Amino acid sequence: MGCTYKTNKYRLPLLHILDCTNLQTFFSAGYCFLHGEKQEDYYWALSTFLHRINPSPPKVFISDQEDALKSAALELMPEVPQILCVWHISMNALSKAQYVWRDRDSSMEDEKVEIAEMRTDFMAQ
Question: Which residue in 29, 57, 85, 112 could disulfide with 19, CB within 3.0 to 4.6 Å?
Fold first, then answer.
């Protein structure tokens, strides 16, 4: 689950709920525009969604690091494990790696090249 932004002229966040099949393909299970991104907004959306689907809760809850969404999910589905989306983990690692290996911190050209090579090697792994 996650929100996308600037999707309409009112700039309301769009909550998109995905599900996965046994063939590892994804499909849109639900979506709705939210008034805001407070815990109450997510609680309303999740409770409405859960009420309309099969009575069994999801096996796992995957989202970004949105605290309000995670809190609402924990309140509604306390037994469902919550994990962080792999894409968000990758983007976080990328931003941290770029910060750690800033080549502008070096004054010598050969150091800049060495730092850039180390960053490239790390990102390839």
Answer: 29
Q: Which amino acid appears at position 8 of this protein?
A: N
User: In the chain, what are the domain boundaries?
Assistant: 2-84, 88-124
- Residue pair 63/85 in contact (Cβ under 8 Å)? The answer is yes
Q: What is the C-alpha to C-alpha distance for residues 68 and 65, in angstroms, rounded to an integer?
A: 9
For the chain, the C-alpha Rg in angstroms (whole number) is 20
What is the DSSP secondary structure assignment for residue 5, as one 8-state letter?
-
Distance CA 79, CA 97 (A): 34
What pLDDT was estimated at residue 5?
74
Burial tier of 85 (Cβ tally within 10 Å: 0-12, 13-18, 19+): middle
Distance separating alpha carbons of residues 56 and 62, to the nearest angstrom? 17
**pTM of the predicted model, to two decimals?**
0.70
- The helix/strand/coil state of 41 is helix
User: Distance between CA atoms of 68 and 77, rounded to whole angstroms?
Assistant: 14
At position 35, the amino acid (one-letter code) is H
